[in-house]
Amino acid sequence: MMKLEVRSKSRHYPVWIGEQLLERCAEYWxxxxxxxxKIVVVTDHHVVSTRKTQIFLETLQQMAETHxxxxxxGEASKSLETAETIYSKLAxxxxxxxxxxxxxxxxxxxxxxxxxAATYLRGxxxxxxxxxxxxxxxxxxxxxxxxxxxxxxxxGSFYSPVAIWYDVEMLESxxxxxxxxxxxxxxxxxxxxxxxxxTELYQSPYRSYPGxxxxxxxxxxxxxxxxxxxEADEQEAExxxxxxxxxxxxxxxxxxxEYRWSHGEAISIGLAVESYLAKRLGLLSEDDKQKxxxxxxxxxxxxxxxxxxxxxxxxxxxLDKKNSQDGWTFALPERIGQVRIIKNIDKDLVRxxxxxxxxx
Length: 360
Known about the structure:
Elements lengths: L1 E6 L4 E7 L19 E7 L6 H11 L3 E7 L8 H13 L7 E6 L1 H13 L5 E6 L4 H4 L4 E4 L8 E4 L4 E5 L8 H18 L1 H9 L8 H21 L14 H10 L6 H18 L5 H13 L11 H8 L10 E8 L2 E8 L1 H13 L1
Parallel strand pairs: 2-9, 3-4, 3-5, 5-6, 6-9
Antiparallel strand pairs: 1-2, 7-8, 10-11
Helix pairs in contact: 2-3, 5-6, 5-7, 5-9, 8-9, 8-11, 9-10, 9-12
């Protein structure tokens, strides 16, 4: 079992990473938090059928009256419409501010549940219980929200959980594609702040679940990178933008593909393109650029979409929240383990980086 601590301005909370954690989650109840009268677990129709769900619900039931709400799996559920459905069910259950939500799922469930917690009754407590590798990123740091038809995450808030319970045994059942997708965010964290982790992944790639102990060690390193950034800049005044490495291009690719590319796959493509952009700006060496692309591909991730034209991405890039009226903003690698925020980048330079990546 590994315990990390997040000490941000808005809230201090523990991050527990381990095996058989859900069976013993009462032992990891956040210190100082009153037990709720009711717990509402939000999950999706994939996770609800797993053996762990019943175990988790039975354990929670011993602490408080527990209810289960299930949404459709997939990005389409991360919407105002789904949030409104959950609001209505919470009202029917007569949920009060002393009660609690639990996000039991991947990134969509975590973002959606956190958004509902932030907005229902002007704020409910909630716990993140991630079930995917990808959610090691989204569950941490308090960014919650939903999508609009125009772009991802346009409606949201900063609202931290009171705890994260991360039972890595759920990762064993991930498909090869879902595992690889999650590794894109692990590699991103290594690029941002852990040359040591990147070297380990580059030399000994994890193309599938490596077992509990190795997963706990890898995740604790990746999540600590994000914790360090969040503690320095919780509400993205500027520095937290480094966590968007690969995401400016990646979110545009994901949306334009109509989610044919998973989030992690799109971020992988984004990391490759943005590495070329960093190289064009004289920030990143040729050797580090190549290592980033190779590390992604060693983990079974795509780094190109030759069927997509750059001009198709522009409407999505224009909506990126980091941008100003003067130009586009990117979080670009200077070297492996260090990223810099660069503002006012001209779209023609980004087009050239896209073409560089597609023509190799």
